[in-house]
Amino acid sequence: MKITLSHYEFVRKFPDAEAARLYLEQRRWNGTPACPHCGLIERIQVRKVAGFYRCLSCKEDFTVRTGTIMERSHIPLDKWLYAMYLVATARKGISSMQLSKELGITQKSAWFLLSRIREACGNGRGGGGMLSGIVEADETYLGGKDKNRHRSKAEHLTGGKGKTVVFGMRQREGATRAIVVGREMGFARLNRELHANIKRDSLLCTDEAAAYKSVEGFYHCAINHSAKEYVDGIVSTNSIESVWALLKRGYYGIYHHFSTKHMQRYVDEVTYRLNEGNCAVHTMDRIDALIAKTDGVRLTYKALTADA
């Protein structure tokens, strides 16, 4: 059975904003509009303009955009849906410059649109229960190379110092979670994230970093990378390291840079594609998972651009 939908097929499926609206309403309300303000479905009045409704109970007007990342956006719904398609299917992501050309909108609008979709990708982060079984944990460092910085901004630091730490956990044949930590990750934060996301008595696979040796509550096995050891029976960190490889391919090849302020959204986008947006799942199922995440999420331009 075919599980992928080509760009051509997708555009044929949603040729205009009306087709996109009907699809979004079906996915969100299952054919029966519900007031996003009070939740009632009994007293909904259809307005003269297609897609507009009024709740006779709370006297509020609404559309399928209300209470989602699309609220108050002037971008047509078919362009929103196509942007979700691109985010769900672009393995390493899509830049705002490229999206602006695909949709025929400004780069500023494309960046705002992508930021809101990434905000939805992180909706329910950590949901789906605790990770269990065999879980791999590792950290990576994101930030430009010191040699590429301007002389006035060079920090002359080695290794991961001066970069932003991203900590990740991946259940073998299961879900992936990743959290932007900041410049440093002490034992207290490491221990807290592990116990918040992984069931006790799971098998924890890590590298030989000393911090993991003090963690309690898990069966812990370490792989010694410094000794050129990468797999020892069932023990390895190859799965979580493949997540970092994918994240960095997007960082260097697509975006070239993203600030620490917005980094969690980019990380959430990558983990969404690995979880609900897995390429082994039918294209429309991936998009449906993303549509479901948009409900109850709002990100204004003022909040997006505010000082951290």
How is this structure best described in words?
- The protein has 308 residues and is α+β, with helices and mostly antiparallel strands.
- The chain has 2 domains: 1-15 and 70-121 and 281-308, no CATH class; 134-274, 2-Layer Sandwich (Nucleotidyltransferase, domain 5), CATH 3.30.420.
- Helix content is 38%, strand content 14%.
- It is built from 10 helices and 10 strands.
- The protein has helices at residues 7-13, 17-29, 77-89, 96-103, 107-121, 187-197, 238-255, 260-274, 283-294, 301-305; strands spanning 44-46, 53-55, 61-62, 134-142, 164-171, 176-182, 203-206, 219-222, 231-232, 235-236.
- The strands form 3 sheets. A 5-stranded mixed β-sheet has the order 6-5-4-7-8, sandwiched between helices. Strands 1-2-3 form a 3-stranded antiparallel β-sheet, with no helix packed on it.
- The protein starts with 6 loop residues before the first helix and ends with a helix.
Biggest sheet, open or closed, and with what strands and sense? 5 strands, mixed
**What is the end-to-end distance?**
47 Å
- The CATH architecture of the largest domain would be 2-Layer Sandwich
Q: Roughly what is the average pLDDT, rounded to an integer? A: 91
Number of domains: 2
The tally of beta strands, per DSSP, is: 10
Biggest sheet strand line-up:
6-5-4-7-8
Query: What does the radius of gyration come to?
Result: 22 Å
Class based on secondary structure composition and strand pairing: alpha+beta
Number of distinct helices: 10
Overall 3D form: elongated
The helix fraction, in percent, is 25-40%
CATH class of the largest domain: Alpha Beta
- CATH topology descriptor of the largest domain: Nucleotidyltransferase, domain 5
Order of helices and strands: HHEEEHHHEEEHEEEEHHHH
Ranges where pLDDT stays below 50 over 5 or more residues in a row are: none
Instruction: Give the DSSP E fraction (strand runs of 2 or more residues).
Output: 5-15%
